[in-house]
Amino acid sequence: MKNWLLPTLIGLMAILYIFVIPPEPLTLKIVFKLIPMALIILYAFLQLPAKPAPAMRFIIIGLFFCMLGDGFIALSFIAGLGAFLVGHVFYLMGFIKMSRINKTRLAALLPIGLYSFIIGRHLIIALQTEGNDGLVIPVVAYMLVISLMAFTAILTDNLWATAGSLLFVISDSILSWNMFVATIPYSDVLIMTTYYSAQFLIAKSLSFFRKTHIQERKERIV
Known about the structure:
Number of strands: 0
Number of helices: 9
Strand content: under 5%
Distance between the termini: 33 Å
Largest sheet: none
Structural class: mainly alpha
Shape: globular
């Protein structure tokens, strides 16, 4: 399979879901929503070396749980949130194992923390105002985990992982703001384009990690 063929198919299926598939029937909508993610997971598998490191397996598992979240969230917000939360935990574990910590990358914790605090504060106020106090703890927990996921992605010094994780934060910020704070024009398009892009870039990051993994194995042999 040529290098461009599968990414092109992913893009076409994402465009089909976002702009063509109608909201009803819901079952059809969910199926087409999952197709791009299934293709992204296949793409991620193709980036793996013959003997992938545990960290790479964590990324694959994270992609799988996010795909589950895509399906669950159409039926239950809490179920979807939980699946995505598990997915981010696996991303986080994978990125931690591949991190390359230095002072410059550690400094990224400040803007990420500030951004999460500002968004989180508005979300908590909106949830409490609308009487959704039961969602405060799950939403705060999710924001904490996705923020840590983005931070650990930056620590890997992998531009694909970093861009993907930040796009994921943006996508979820648009979704939560649109649901709980204020309506955002074209929110569905913005959420899904940033989401699919985020997942593809995280899958693509495995090609960088593969090169690093192979190089480290060669150095150990020498």
